[in-house]
Write the structure tokens for this entry.
Amino acid sequence: MAQDGPAALRLVQTISLSGVEGRIDHFAISLDHSRLYVAALGNNTVEVIDLIEAKRAGTIGGLREPQGVGVVPVSNDVVVASGQDGKCRIYDSSLKLKSTLDGLDDADNVRIDERDGTAFIGYGGGAIMAINPVAGRKLYEVKLDGHPESFQLEKQGSANRIFVNVPEAKHIAVTDRNKQAVVATWPLDGAQGNFPMALDEQHHRLFVGCRKPATLLVMDTESGKILQSLACCGDADDVFFDAQTQRVYATGGQGCISVFNRTDAGHYQLLTTVETAPGARTSLFVSAKRMLYLAVPHQGNQEAEIRVYRVEK
């Protein structure tokens, strides 16, 4: 693994996903059970990884293009959103199917509100749906101006905003969970393909990965203004903020991870670029473990696998 600059991320382990074909989408983790859930979209499965044994522990089959996955705190129920059949399936911690919600065409990203366990799913031509995973029922939905990609929930105090990437509309939609409505839209002038996103609530910063051109936008969540535009790895599909190191990790299908750090002046700069593998665009940063898990799809002689990177100081 080649790396320019300081060793911000160190490859410490690979976990085989032998036999998994096609594109790999998003992840979720159960810290209670040390399990990583991987939405293997092209394989029509969710792969369950035992992080203690560093091997596959199970598979959820019978899916049609699973794209998003989330784990509900306390219950450890697993929420899986499948794009092709428009279903949201909820499994218990033993992977037994509990309930299914229909009518979510192109169901995509899943986020869980850790404060009350509400699950949010982006889907269709433009909507975010809130569901109660325990009851397996819809709570409400908020309409958008296009299909939502990554979105992030405010979690601190009484904050109730959700920031949503809407690439078709070339903007960020800001919704309010109490009002159950869009309360602002922030245009992304000069940038398109805004897919991944991360949030730093403490410093009121939103990090938006764009593909055209390949840039990381740093935005002010108080004003909605773009403060910086930084070149980053191409075809980015996941971005994470690391509060402990004040770094941002952007993983892209170009075959690299761009690592940015916060300067004393409060701005961001590229710290290092970590070479990975072509098509390795989705990942999950787990602060509690100080690890970043990266999905590498099967291409040629490269079998599908999860690469585990440890965060270095």
